[in-house]
Design a protein that fits this description.
The chain is an alpha+beta fold. The protein has four domains: about 35-60 and about 155-185, Molybdopterin biosynthesis moea protein, domain 2; about 65-150, Molybdopterin biosynthesis moeA protein, domain 3, CATH 2.170.190.11; about 190-340, Molybdenum Cofactor Biosythetic Enzyme, Chain A (3-Layer(aba) Sandwich), CATH 3.40.980.10; about 345-415, MoeA, C-terminal, domain IV (Beta-clip, Beta Barrel). About 25% of the residues lie in helices and about 25% in strands. The chain is built from nine helices and 25 strands. It has helices spanning about 5-25, 30-40, 170-180, 210, 220-230, 245-255, 275-280, 320-340, 385-390; strands spanning about 25-30, 50-55, 65, 70, 80, 100-105, 115-120, 135, 150, 160, 185, 190-195, 235-240, 260-265, 285-290, 295, 300-305, 310-315, 345-350, 355, 360-370, 375, 395, 405, 410-415. The chain has a six-stranded mixed β-sheet with strand order 13-12-14-18-17-15, sandwiched between helices. Strands 16, 19, 21, 22, 23 and 25 form a six-stranded mixed β-sheet that branches. A five-stranded mixed β-sheet has the order 7-4-6-5-8, with no helix packed on it. β17 (about 300-305) and β18 form a beta hairpin. α1 packs across α8 (about 320-340) and α5 runs parallel beside α8 (about 320-340). It is elongated, with a radius of gyration of 30 Å.
Length: about 425
């Protein structure tokens, strides 16, 4: 029986070549607008496939940091005639000698000006009232560059705006748009085939009422894991197969084709009589190895030939809580790091109530954090998906612990 760390290392070693190979096999060009839409839709953060060089300096021209008056610093202490105002978005005429131009924040500094003093240092002290002034006194402490955002002070033209491998964050999207970059090359999304096994899975569109009078259930794993994978930037397809080895292999070959980078299966790896994943794929290279974890003890991973080519396969148990916990523990960390997505926030907090745990296993419970303490949500059973949905944290009870007492420190991962 493996420890959690040993199996996580095995999954990382299996998946890492796919992740690195994807980055060297070419990138896809996406517009800044499309990347912003992806970010808004929660489809996961993208990663630059190639470095981006600034086509123009940032800022692209000297502009005002303040609402105020553009002047020559050499005129400090002088009374100047007020010229026409300069709004943002126009190219102003050169500043005449002996004049001060009202200027708005972000507006281009006129040729001849080298400083700005704020409108607050005038009477009446604000616009638009100050537009009625015919002359202003330039503060005597003004120096060259005061309240001027200089050309290229954020980034010179031709400088690297972001290297390859950078996550496409909101700040980077803003910098790209500001620099006039319309599109960038990004690493294509990881393609994951999510396979739900089980002859008990009902067809899409079947009603819940029908399940009450039958032995069928909905495919929670396909939906939940596809959503979880999308959060870390993966593209998914789902397939549902019965507990029939021939049908299972045929469905896998058809669905994998030349599309899938990784196959993630759920169910079919325990010790039952109809464990289709273990029966079909273990002879082909899938290593079925129990892990000292509850829930999620049955685990498997390996490189398997599918559709005529070697494909990494990660297999989780079929119970929905086990599948989601397995994803959080074994697969999400490596995919999130690759996609530049946020890791789970980890804290150590005291337990609010007692609990039991199998001493030989690392138990992962669901919980909520209130008043700085950990409250368990539901029991440890792996079918309690509604309790998982109500939880805000995963709560870790380490190996060697058979009883948790109120006040005992527990490591928790935030799920939201």
């Amino acid at each position: 029986m493996r420890t959690i760390g040993q199996h996580r290392d095995a999954v990382v070693a299996l998946v890492a070549p796919v992740l690195s190979g994807r980055k060297t096999s070419g990138a896809e060009t996406r517009s800044i607008a499309d990347l912003a839409t992806d970010a808004r839709s929660g489809r996961g953060r993208r990663v630059l496939g190639r470095a981006v060089v600034a086509p123009a300096p940032l800022p692209p021209f000297d502009n005002s940091q303040m609402d105020g008056f553009a002047v020559r610093a050499a005129d400090a202490g002088s009374v100047l005639r007020v010229s026409a105002p300069i709004p943002a978005g126009v190219v102003p005429p050169p500043l005449d000698a002996g004049t001060a131009a009202p200027i708005m924040t972000g507006a281009r500094i006129p040729d001849g000006a080298d400083a700005v003093f704020p409108v607050e240092r005038t009477v009446p002290g604000s616009f638009p009232a100050a537009l009625g002034l015919t002359e202003v006194l330039v503060p005597d402490d003004l120096v060259v560059g005061t309240f001027v955002r200089g050309t290229g002070t954020d980034l010179p033209q031709g400088a690297e705006l972001a290297p390859a491998g950078s996550p496409v964050t909101p700040a980077l999207l803003g910098a790209l748009a500001s620099a006039g970059v319309g599109s960038v090359d990004v690493v294509r999304r990881l393609r994951v085939l999510v396979v739900s096994t089980g002859s008990e899975l009902r067809a899409d569109g079947a009603t819940a009422g029908a399940a009450v009078t039958s032995a069928m259930i909905g495919d929670a794993n396909g939906v939940a894991l596809s959503a979880a994978l999308a959060e870390v930037g993966a593209e998914t397809r789902t397939v549902r197969v019965p507990d029939d080895e021939t049908a299972f292999l045929r469905a896998l070959d058809d669905a994998v084709g030349d599309w899938a980078d990784l196959v993630l299966t759920t169910g079919g790896i325990s010790a039952g009589a109809y464990e289709v994943v273990r029966q079909a794929l273990e002879p082909r290279g899938l290593a079925v190895t129990p892990v000292a974890m509850q829930p999620g003890g049955p685990q498997a991973a390996g490189t398997v030939t599918l559709a005529g080519r070697p494909v990494p396969v990660v297999s989780f148990p079929g119970n929905p809580v086990s599948a989601l916990v397995s994803f959080e523990v074994f697969l999400r960390p490596v995919l999130a790091a690759d996609a530049g997505a946020d890791d789970r926030v980890t804290q150590v907090l005291p337990a609010a109530e007692p609990a039991d745990s199998p001493a030989a296993k690392h138990q992962v419970r669901r919980g909520r954090v209130q008043d700085g303490r950990v409250h368990f949500v539901g029991g440890p059973s792996s079918h309690l998906l509604a309790h998982y949905a109500a939880a805000t944290h995963l709560v870790h009870v380490p190996i060697g612990t058979d009883t948790v007492a109120p006040g005992d420190p527990l490591t928790v991962w935030s799920l939201r």
